[in-house]
Structures are given as structure tokens and as C-alpha cells.
Amino acid sequence: MTEIASGPSSSPAGRRPEAIKAVPVRHSWRWVSAAVVLVLAFAAIYTVVTAPLLHWETFWQFLFQRLIFDGVRLTLVLTVVAMVIGITLGVTLAVMRLSPNPVMSAVSWFYIWFFRGTPVLVQIFFWFNIAIILPHAGVGIPFTHIGVSVSTNVLIPAVVAAILGLGFNEAAYMAEIVRAGIISVEHGQTEAAQALGMTRLKVMQRIVLPQAMRVIIPPTGNETISMLKTTSLAFVASVPELFTRADQIANSNFRYVELLFVASFWYLVMTSVLTVGQFYLERYFARGSTRELPPTPLQRFRRLLFTYRMLPRT
Amino acid sequence: MSAMVRAEEVNKSFGRLEVLRGITLEVQPKEVMCIIGPSGSGKSTFLRCINHLEKIDAGRLYVDGELVGYQQRGDKLHELPDRDVCRKRSEIGMVFQHFNLFPHMTALQNAVEAPIHVKGENRATAEARARKLLERVGLADKVDAYPNQLSGGQQQRVAIARALSMQPKLMLFDEPTSALDPELVGEVLDVMRGLAEDGMTMIVVTHEMGFAREVGDTLVFMDGGVIVESGTPREVLANPQQERTKLFLSKVL
Fold it and tell me: Is the model's pLDDT at A110 over the cut of 90?
């Protein structure tokens, strides 16, 4: 014997132990459970789709109708404007909440407590009816007659009432999301930035918020998708968004379920688009936090094709 | 020539815990001072007082002849407004134990961030200098790498380049090699040695006795918030006078 296996060693160059070829464990119950779930899902869909009194013609007839499209457009406008208000005000509230100034922090706390603690439906309704208690609104110098004032009904039409209700409510949620993002950034980052001579504002803008984005984006995407559907509450202010339109049409032809399907179809289309957008946004803000960015679906598809081609034919 | 840093009876407490109890020392321009001592001895806190990341409670602390964080008007001290505190900080470079690089920026972006957004330099000037600095710390080929694509030693060298990008007159190092794998310590110390040779004034809190002996002009041993012993590194390390210093050195050498 020339070689004695004692202590750690590595196999001589060029030799590798034989690759393992084992018989895989059979998971019979996986097949059974998959089958059960598929059957149940199929049964549920089949029951609804083939419901005896469901008029699919009505669904197709209204799916691409102009009134519905107008509703879709308004839903998008409401979502975007309410989210812009929510995010801007939310970031402000979050920064206020973390401010060393106790008044700032307390005001922010109170805002969040109030607007998160009352139903958004009530808030929309409140703005819609505000003219009842405040017929005129304006700015001026107290105890003088200097100033301008307009009728509240003119200042806050139904659409604005819905936007205010949705936006102000959203701001309370966004504030908490942004705050969570800000405190998730390590304190050493702030310190390093301060040591370089950055002011508090610069540290926030350049160092903390960009890193907080990674934590803020996913729940914000969630909020946007949620907002898209919550806009249907504008129905109470008769704002003609998607759901209100569907309801109005249904009121004239009594095909409520078909029109709910039409509305649902468009809600699903819009949320799907948002989901895709969220993926790319998250990917952008992940730079620097993962060594390699997750592949886009297109890249994944290409890689799949490529690996398949690379496999040796057997 | 006036001292770059002068501390007179500096005191600092966190609540009831007294962290610094009367620190008095001077650092001359181009001097390299190494501070050693057990953890909790207040050495990092002292370093952070110098650029006013921590406020001192009593005593006086001067950098380049000016009070840190305050202004003397008549017989009263006035707190400096944020703007002035920031301007003074920008003249002092600091390197941290855990690097604290900005992870969402590449090495180059890390090193141009402050020159552009604090000093208001134009991008071209800032980038040219940042590239030169990254080359100097041996990372010319890593300018576009994000921090998490770099080893600890490389990250710390980027952090040094980032601090140097502001052309500081004083550099503070807070245990710059303590978070590194042993095999990566050397590359960071080499960069620091080079800086010292070029005449940078440096205060280094460290556990690297070899570095302190070779590069340091002064060695300060701190324990319990006071300076127990100081002198040239050779003297202190070879022939400590105080029992506490002897005990500490017997454990780390």
C-alpha cells in the first residue's frame, strides 16, 4: 500500500466519485390531492359559467361599451390622484412622526389615529355632504372681512369629495408604511451620511428614503391595487366610475350579475397591469441589495430555452 | 503650530453612565494617534465627539483651533446651528467599523455623493477625484461595483476613499479592521499606512498593536473613560508603567 487515507485530503486531480443516481420517492398523495383540488375548482367555475339564467350575450354586449370605458377611465383617474395625495401626504406625515419636534410628531400621530380609525366610506360621505355644515369656504384674515370665499358645493363636487376621502384616508396608511421603511434603514447609514457633512434633509433625501423604498414599494403596490377597487366606494357620491356605471346600466336592464362580471373583468385587467408594474419597480429598487437582480419573466423564458438546448440529448 | 485636535477635560455621559471622565489630549497636524483599550472604555465615543456625532457634557474640544459644536460669545457658549455643524463635519473624514457604505450606490457613487451634494462640486471634478482615490486604495477595477459585490476589505477601502473624497484635514478611524476576516486586515492597514506616510492627521481606535507600533506616533491607552497611559507606541507597548495597561496588553499581545 502506498497511500494511507489519514486526515483530510482531496481526491487526486481528474478523478471524481460517481454521480448519484437514486430512485426518487413516489409522492402518491400529491397526485391525489392535486386531483381533488382540480375537480373542486372546475366544478365551482362550471356551476357559475353555466348558471341557467346567466346571459353571456349581455356580458359581451357591455364589455366594450363606451359607458363602461368612461367608467374605467374615471376609476384610473381616481386611483392615481388619490394615491398621489396619499403618498405625498403619507411621506410628509411619516417624516413628521419621526421628527424631534414633539408638536410635529403629535399632530402626525393624531392624523393617523383619526383617519385610520374611521371608515373610508364615512369619510367620502362626509366630504360629499360637507356643504350641509359649511356652505362657504375660503381664506381670509380672522376677525376682518378681508378674504375670499366660495360655495363649498362648487369647491367640492362629487369627484373631489371622493378624491379627498380616498386620498386623506390613504395618507394615514401610507404614513405607517413609509415610517416602517425609514426605520428599517440601519442607523449607521444616517451616521455615515452625517459624518460626511449632510444635513438632516439631505440624509433623508439621498440616503435613507432611497433605501427605505425597497421596504416601502411592495406594500405600496398592495395599497394601489387595493385603492383601485376601493374607488368603487365613490358610488355613494354618485361619481360615475366603473362600478357606478355598471350599476346604472344594470338598473335599466336588470342584468345585475352580468354587469358585475363586466366590472370585475376590467378590475382584474387593471390590477394585473399594476402587478406587472410593481414587479419592475421592485426590481429597480432592489439594486445594491441583492447580488443579482431577479430575472424578468422574459429573461427567465430565454434562460429556460437556452438551458433546454444545452441539455445533452439522451 | 496649533494642535489639530485639543481636548480639555472632556466629559460625556449617557444617562447615568459616565463614558468619558476628563479626557485631555492633543493631536498635532500630521500626527497619527492610536487609541487602544478594552471595549466600553469610551474610545469610540471620544472619536464620535470629535465630529460632534455625540455632544460633550463638560470640558472643551477644539478641532483646528475652533470649538466643536459651539461658539464662544462673551462668556457664554452658543450651540452652533446645524448648517455650521455640517460644514465642520465635512472637513473631518470618518471610517466606521462596519463600513456603512451606501448600499444603493456603486463605489464611485459612494465617493462622489458628498462632494456633489454637500460641497456642490460639479460631477466631472468629483468623479475625476473619486476615480483617483479608488485607484489609490487599489480598487480602480471596482468603481462600478455595488458594496455587496465587494469583500469586507474592499468595502472598507471604498469607505476610506469616500471619506477622503471630501479632502478632510483630519481622519477618524473607528476600529476599521475589527469586522474583517483576518486575511483581509492587511490590505486596509496598508492603505492607512500610505495615508499616514502622506502626512494625514489621523486618530485610530484599533486593536492592531502591530499597526500602532509601526505607524502610530502616539499611543493612548484608555480604560473606564479616562486616559490611563500615553506615550510613544514603543514605550507603552514594551514598557507599560500602569498595572491596568500591563494587564490589558498581556491579554491582547
Answer: yes
A229-272, pLDDT tens digit by residue?
A: 999 999 998 899 999 999 999 999 999 999 999 999 999 999 99
**Is A288 in contact with B103 (Cβ distance < 8 A)?**
yes
- How much is the average pLDDT of B79-87? 92
CB A222 within 8 A of CB A180: no
Evaluate whether B170 touches B33 at the Cβ level (below 8 Å).
Answer: no
In tens, the pLDDT along B33-71 reads: 999 999 889 999 999 999 999 999 999 999 999 999 999
Query: Cell numbers of B99, please?
Result: 463600513
Could you tell me how many residues make up chain A? Answer: 314
User: Nearest-CA neighbor of B85 among B54, B112, B47?
Assistant: B54
Residues A75 and A69: their CA atoms lie apart, in Å, by 10
Q: How far is it, in rounded angstroms, from Cα A87 to Cα A118?
A: 19
B44 at interface of A, judged by CB pairs closer than 8 A: no
Cell of B19: 463614558
CB-closest option in A188, A189, A195 to B89: A195
The whole-angstrom separation of Cα A64 and Cα A58 is 11
Give Rg (Cα) of chain A. 29
Task: Specify which residues A210 forms β-bridges with.
Answer: none
Task: State whether residue A212 sits within 8 Å of chain B by CB.
Answer: no
Residues B56, B11: Cα–Cα separation, whole Å: 6
Please tell me if residue A199 touches chain B, with a CB cutoff of 8 Å: yes
Q: What is the 3-state secondary structure (H, E, C) of chain A?
A: CCCCCCCCCCCCCCCCCCCCCCCCCCCHHHHHHHHHHHHHHHHHHHHHHCCCCCCHHHHHHHHCCHHHHHHHHHHHHHHHHHHHHHHHHHHHHHHHHCCCCHHHHHHHHHHHHHHHHCCHHHHHHHHHCHHHCCCEEEEECCCCCCEEEEEHHHHCCHHHHHHHHHHHHHHHHHHHHHHHHHHHCCHHHHHHHHHCCCCHHHHHHHHHHHHHHHHHHHHHHHHHHHHHHHHHHHHHHCCCCHHHHHHHHHHHHCCHHHHHHHHHHHHHHHHHHHHHHHHHHHHHHCECCECCCCCCHHHHHHHHHHHHHHCCCC
Which helix (H) or strand (E) segment holds residue B250: the answer is helix B243-252
Q: Compare all CA atoms of chain B with the CA of A214 and give the residue at the minimum distance.
A: B104
Who among B98, B114, B148 is closest to A196 (CB)? B114
Calpha distance A246→B13 (Å, rounded): 68
d(Cα A118, Cα B31) in Å, to the nearest integer?
Answer: 64
Strand B218-223's sheet: what is its strand order?
B92-95, B170-174, B202-205, B32-36, B218-223, B226-231
Residues 6+ apart with CB under 8 A from A296: A279, A280, A283
ipTM: 0.92
